[in-house]
Amino acid sequence: MSKIVSIEITHHRLPLDPAFKASWDGRPRRHFDATIVRVRDDEGREGIGSGDLMKGFEGHEDLFIGQDPRHLERHYEVLSHINFHYGRCWPMDLALWDLSGKITGEPVWRMLGGRASRVRLYASSGVLREPSAMAEQAERYIDEGFPAMKVRFSSSSGGRGGWREDVKALEAIRARVGDRLELMVDCNQGWRMPWDTTLPWTFKDALAVAKELERLGVYWMEEPLYRSDRKGMKELKQATSVRIAGGEMTRELYEFRDIIEERAFDVIQPDVALVGGITGCRRLVYQAREAGVQFTPHSWTNGIGVLANAHLTAGVGDAAWLEYPYDNPEWSEARRDYPMASPLKHDAGWLDLGLAPGLGIVLDEERLKATRI
């Protein structure tokens, strides 16, 4: 029986020059941080995970050392208790799945059910560009084979100047590409950065935006109201033909259970690196399916998180698309995936997961040494 013998957590920082001006953050981002979790067994194998900072995990290593890494449900329970008392330590779950795959010789997507070895991607933009530049970016996505694009709206007063200006950018895209590209919109109203005190939209604001998005044939509107307003989300869902999506920062699985039971959203977007890990989120896939709610993970993270969400998506095979953070030149695959020996590369809007055991992660050890905090 394989046993866990060590757990190592390291933190890394890549300087960004030029800075990345994220639509959800009024402050230009001049560095990109990554936390790497390594779980090793007594035969020298190593499982890798990444995501949140693992705050609160220190001092709980003894709850895992000596255990079989394949006892994933047991480890999930421990991590859920740590999550309650301290921080989100779900990268540990990803590392355990990666290690379990290396022990069994199977890719995680196959361990989860093996419905597919690849996933369809939508290009997730992150920068607030002028309307003409947004339209050009949409053309580039089409040329690269993406079937869909997510457009960001401003989260605060530091953006384009209000939702009417955001709609103009969306109009420019639709005028340029017609129906060659499915469009989604992230309204950025569900949460704020700690320093951003801008109030979220009211229900009537969100409804006015929804009517504009209906006119422009938008597939879903994401986070149109503050995250706790499930009643408002449900009313908005009933008032518009545009799908309502959300949940990327939802912290507890039981909150998703309530969202699903109430049919508050059309689309739920958990991220395995932020809530529940792969072990917890696979529960949500089946709950959502039975309720007729779409499931497609949030995955705005580095390539390790993208891979983990992709394996879950491929294993259960329910998501029409997976989020692919990609907005050249500010958010390139090389920047996004700097902890990895080779950045992920999409193939005409598809991500092929292959047959490598576990999650298929290969780290760039020299880069990690150079960027270690």
Taking the alpha carbons of the first and last residues, their distance comes to 35 Å
Specify the CATH architecture of the largest domain. Answer: Alpha-Beta Barrel
How would you characterize the largest beta sheet? Answer: 9 strands, mixed
- Count the domains: 2
Helix proportion of residues, in percent? 25-40%
**Binned strand content:** 15-25%
Radius of gyration: 20 Å
Protein structure class: alpha/beta
Number of helices: 12
Q: Based on CA inertia axes, which overall geometry fits?
A: globular
CATH class of the largest domain: Alpha Beta
Uncertain runs: none
Using DSSP, what is the number of strands?
12
Q: Overall mean pLDDT score?
A: 96
The SSE order reads EEEHHHEHEHEHEHEHEHEHEHEH
Explain this structure.
The chain folds into two domains: 4-106 and 364-371, Enolase-like, N-terminal domain (Enolase-like, domain 1); 111-352, Enolase-like C-terminal domain (TIM Barrel, Alpha-Beta Barrel). Helix content is 36%, strand content 19%. The chain has twelve helices and twelve strands. The strands form two sheets. Strands 4, 5, 6, 7, 8, 9, 10, 11 and 12 form a nine-stranded mixed beta sheet that branches. A three-stranded antiparallel beta sheet has the order 1-2-3. Its cofactor is Mg(2+).
